[in-house]
Backbone:
């Protein structure tokens, strides 16, 4: 008991100390004095073609290679993490104006910003990037509608350093999406030098090359093993912005190996540490565990087109019988929270006031099933991807919970690739799926997941009133109006229960305790430049 | 027709060929090789077909994997077109074979690079680990197997058999983790389990792709030592597990030969026991040992997913594991072909070695 409290005090002091030291960001005098940061990643980069990469690791890589027009501001919190704010600041754009009605954005670019090869970054390069996004390869054409941009002519070059974007109507997410690295500048000259007739957008070249507009350049590319990120000498913020002399990305597929490497101090940061290891790791005073609440939401999908889930009472009964607390306690080891609406906890406009499916209210659940004509229960397959141990474990808790109200659940764990294919058929009756909204926006989240014609709406939920609410909110720049709209949408959806809202796991980043400058932007990618070390 | 001189020439060369052929045909080794090569080609053709069609029926649609979470029907259809998945399977197979004949395994769908380049980059890591592990396996199992046979029924035999049972029943994953925990974390005598060289070490100029050999060729002793330093623990982990069946095999082969008449005769004429065991007995015990060695060596160079994963070793085993997960079919097919070639070549070499070791075995 006594030992325990001493440990807690030590831990508290360490946390406080690391918090203080990172707030005082010391400008490093010479490049040589800055440390190297070694990060153990749990997965490999597939490629870094900005508009088509698929791996999680490539989000991090590209966020450090491509510079958008504007970026989120960050503020240090008590634990020394730099947390992204709702405000934006200029990146390559020095300043910008928005017209009164919120549809015309005029960006004034810095005249000293350069690509890694030393050529200036101009409005033409951003124009090229948007053309590529809207008419070229990749999935970005699905994102631009959130900025009310449908065609490439809406982006216009006024002069070399002035870019004008005209949206069809006011959109809430314009700044947020412009701040994503996928709208970072691609050098038009580099692209055209490497384009061919079959490959007009130089996709092949950009799979492993970047001519970076962002803070880093990749100086060593050893796929499956290591990528070395060194500061881009031409980066507009200059050398003093970097808290490290290089960031080394190492692929370490096995979780236990990552843990041992971190304990021994051979890596500075380890990603993908399982929840079950955290208690043991916390005992080590050289290690800091950053458990960052995220808006990634796991839900139990019930296909609204398939019996018995076409009956709202069955969906409500299931929502009542799921043992939410037990799942968070056992599957996430407590590192997570329970959303009580389709909008994630921590997102603008989230409310739990319409939640009425209290944990363990089994009498009410049985009564609902009875009136729906399933008094004797029923048998159903619950499909989960077998590689995601968390979802497989959650399924067993759901199985136990639903057994209490007479529903027999058979867990059907299938390979991830097969799981996606089944989901995409829109015929899977019962499954656990997850979603992360890149822009952290409630309307964005609902648009993709619960609008009638949305492709990822795998439960086939459809309510025209909800659709109208989502559209109205997406294209409103008035915070009060948006708050009212999202409130009403949550009320309807919680009541109609197309999903049982399961959990939001924390993002776990384990570091050596002398590592500073963990920056958390909306997109949850690691920005290497802030990472430094104290002695 | 003005081709009369040519006709003359073609008339002549077949006869030349035929006489050459006749000489060759009388050579049993050549006839044997020819037959084996023919069989190998047949086997390879079979493997290509099986590899292609089996992977094609794997659940999951690669176009769906590429399209990602923001997918829609239109995009999935576009990717199916781009990746050629919208064509009938037979057409896809014909296309695959045509490209294969040109040494093209197709695009690795996750990295968008040629699959043969990626496999080529990964093979040396696996082969180097496999060779060292095989060397260690022999170094462990030969002496143990012989000792156990010579001292059959004694405490020595008993201890060695206990070791073999342990090796056969231990989980490779667990053994690899324990190895890292003790030798790297606790005692600090193994380097960090991070691939083949210390971070920041320059790879030696590539000749064979094996860092130990390439660094020696470049006269770089330091890198060679670093490579060996990274090799011994994963190799030892593999060797401990596979030396269990090898030891048992050697022991029983030795026991059988030690019982033979010629050994009794050798003993009777007073040859020293060491000569009898290490020369006469071992030589004839080698035939079954060779068969097992072939299987073990094939297993070791085929890329061990578990050891490669735990030691962050970027070999073909890990590569195919990721490829399977991502429905990256061209990469998986390339791997299957690679393994087929390894086993076909190994079997051929072993059969040839049989005849060298044992004159009683005739090639035909």
Residues:
């Amino acid at each position: 008991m006594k030992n325990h409290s001493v440990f807690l005090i030590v831990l508290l002091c360490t946390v406080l100390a690391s918090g203080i030291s990172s707030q005082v960001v010391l400008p490093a005098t010479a490049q040589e004095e800055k440390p190297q940061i070694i990060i153990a990643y749990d997965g490999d980069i597939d490629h870094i073609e900005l508009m088509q990469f698929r791996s999680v690791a490539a989000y991090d890589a590209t966020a450090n290679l491509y510079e958008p027009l504007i970026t989120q501001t960050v503020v240090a919190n008590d634990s020394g993490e730099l947390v992204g704010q709702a405000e934006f600041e200029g990146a390559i754009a020095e300043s910008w104006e928005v017209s009164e009605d919120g549809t015309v954005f005029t960006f004034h670019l810095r005249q000293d910003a350069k690509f890694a090869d030393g050529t200036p970054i101009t409005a033409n390069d951003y124009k090229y990037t948007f053309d590529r996004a809207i008419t070229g390869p990749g999935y970005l054409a699905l994102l631009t509608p959130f900025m009310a941009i449908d065609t490439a002519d809406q982006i216009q070059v006024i002069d070399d350093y002035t870019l004008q974007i005209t949206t069809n109507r006011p959109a809430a997410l314009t700044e947020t999406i412009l701040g994503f690295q996928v709208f970072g500048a691609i050098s038009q000259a580099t692209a055209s030098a490497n384009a061919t007739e079959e490959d007009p957008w130089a996709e092949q070249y950009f799979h492993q090359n970047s001519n970076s507009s962002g803070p880093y350049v990749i100086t060593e590319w050893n796929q499956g093993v290591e990528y070395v990120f060194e500061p881009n000498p031409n980066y507009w913020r200059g050398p003093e912005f970097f808290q490290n002399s290089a960031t080394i990305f190492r692929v370490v597929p096995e979780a236990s190996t990552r843990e041992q490497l971190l304990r021994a101090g051979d890596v500075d940061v380890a990603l993908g540490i399982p929840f079950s290891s955290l208690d043991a790791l916390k005992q080590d005073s050289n290690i800091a565990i950053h458990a960052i609440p995220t808006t990634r939401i796991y839900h139990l999908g019930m296909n609204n087109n398939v019996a018995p889930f076409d009956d709202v009472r069955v969906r409500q009964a299931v929502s009542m019988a799921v043992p939410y607390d037990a799942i968070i306690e056992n599957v996430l080891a407590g590192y997570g929270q329970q959303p009580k609406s389709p909008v994630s906890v921590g997102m603008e406009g989230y409310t739990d006031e319409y939640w009425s499916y209290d944990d363990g209210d089994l009498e009410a659940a049985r009564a609902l099933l009875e009136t729906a004509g399933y008094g004797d229960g029923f048998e159903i397959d619950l499909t989960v991807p077998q590689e995601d141990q968390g979802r497989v474990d959650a399924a067993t808790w759901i199985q136990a919970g639903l057994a209490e109200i007479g529903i027999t659940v058979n867990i059907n764990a299938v390979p991830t690739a097969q799981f996606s294919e089944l989901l995409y058929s829109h015929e899977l009756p019962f499954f656990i799926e997850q979603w992360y909204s890149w822009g952290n926006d409630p309307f964005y989240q609902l648009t993709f997941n619960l609008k009638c014609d949305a492709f990822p709406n795998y439960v086939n939920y459809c309510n025209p009133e909800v659709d109208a609410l989502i559209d109205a909110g997406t294209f409103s720049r008035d915070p009060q109006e948006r708050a009212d709209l999202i409130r009403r949408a949550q009320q309807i959806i919680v009541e109609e229960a197309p999903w049982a809202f399961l959990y939001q796991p924390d993002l776990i980043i384990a570091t050596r305790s002398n590592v500073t400058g963990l920056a958390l932007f909306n997109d949850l990618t690691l920005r290497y430049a802030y990472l430094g070390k104290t002695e | 027709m003005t081709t009369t001189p040519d006709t003359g020439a073609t008339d002549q060369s077949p006869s030349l060929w035929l006489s050459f052929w006749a000489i060759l045909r009388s050579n049993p080794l050549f006839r044997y090789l020819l037959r084996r090569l023919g069989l190998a080609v047949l086997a390879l053709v079979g493997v290509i077909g099986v590899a292609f069609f089996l992977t094609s029926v794997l659940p999951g649609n690669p176009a769906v994997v590429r399209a990602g979470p923001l997918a829609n029907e239109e995009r999935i259809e576009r990717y199916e077109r781009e990746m050629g998945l919208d064509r009938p399977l037979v057409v896809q197979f014909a296309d695959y074979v045509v490209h294969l004949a040109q040494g093209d395994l197709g695009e690795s769908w996750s990295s968008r690079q040629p699959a043969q380049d990626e496999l080529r980059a990964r093979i040396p890591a696996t082969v180097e680990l496999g060779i060292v592990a095989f060397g260690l396996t022999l170094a462990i199992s030969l002496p143990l197997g012989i000792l156990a046979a010579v001292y059959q029924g004694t405490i020595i035999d008993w201890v060695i058999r206990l070791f073999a049972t342990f090796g056969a029943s231990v989980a490779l994953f667990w053994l690899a983790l324990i190895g890292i925990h003790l030798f790297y974390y606790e005692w600090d005598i193994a380097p960090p389990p991070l691939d083949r060289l210390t971070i920041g070490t320059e790879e030696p100029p590539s000749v064979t792709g094996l860092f130990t050999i390439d660094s020696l060729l470049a006269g770089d002793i330091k890198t060679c030592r670093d490579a060996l330093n990274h090799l011994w623990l994963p190799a030892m982990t593999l060797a401990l597990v596979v030396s269990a069946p090898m030891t048992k095999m050697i022991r029983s082969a030795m026991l059988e030969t030690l019982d033979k008449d010629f050994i009794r005769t050798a003993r009777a004429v007073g040859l020293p026991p060491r000569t009898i065991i290490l020369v006469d007995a071992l030589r004839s015990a080698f035939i079954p040992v060779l068969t097992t060695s072939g299987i073990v060596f094939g297993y070791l160079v085929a890329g061990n997913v578990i050891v490669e994963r735990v030691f962050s070793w970027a070999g073909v085993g890990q590569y195919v594991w990721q490829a399977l997960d991502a429905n990256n079919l061209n990469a998986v097919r390339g791997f299957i072909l690679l393994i087929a070639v390894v086993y076909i070549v190994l079997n051929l070499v072993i059969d040839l070695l049989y005849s060298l070791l044992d004159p009683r075995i005739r090639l035909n």
Observations:
- Chain A has 16 helices and 22 strands.
- The first strand of chain A starts at residue 36 and ends at 41.
- Chain A touches chain B through 47 residues (CB under 8 Å).
